[in-house]
Here is the input.
Amino acid sequence: MVVRGGSEEPSGPGLPASDMLHEVSRRLAALLEEAMSAGGRKVPVFLCHPLDPLEDDASLASGTVGILYPTSITPEPRFRRPGMRVEGAIGGLGERLRGDPLWVRVRYVFLVAGGPLAGQLGAVEGALRTLHDHPILVAGEEAAASGDDGGEAGFPLRIVEDSGGWRELGLTEHRLLIAFEVTVPVASGRTEPVERVLGREVRLEEGKS
Here is the structure.
């Protein structure tokens, strides 16, 4: 299935835990599409496996297009904090404890196809510039919460080397691609109600000599 990166607005705060990876992917696609469509040119970005548009002549008939696809997910132990944290009341429910999220590194590949070579190289340059200028990706309420410790809110993003990535995608010929990783949290499903002691009277009395 081919999904346009800029076809919908990011859904913002209040995302269900299961939507985090999709929301981050859509945010990336929209960000890349916006960057490459500057200067009067329009470069749509598809969030899909590269073989889908590359094998569909209609997808490339209008000119250069970008393709974004997640290729792997690996745990990121540096951000692991065993334990639970308090969540505020949601939907009429009281406060509750939730296990700390599992932080993972999601590797993406981005490539362009269709149109003249000059247009493809210009799109690649625009994508590189955008990724370099956004070392912190903001997407959803978890991104805002990640800045609670005083750091910049968002998810770390870095460009990585992946010269053989086109082979792993099943492509039959070499394609120039950009590989990068975003570190994001996958929310824990382990929750417990917060039990608070209310209405207790505490008396302090001086001891008798």
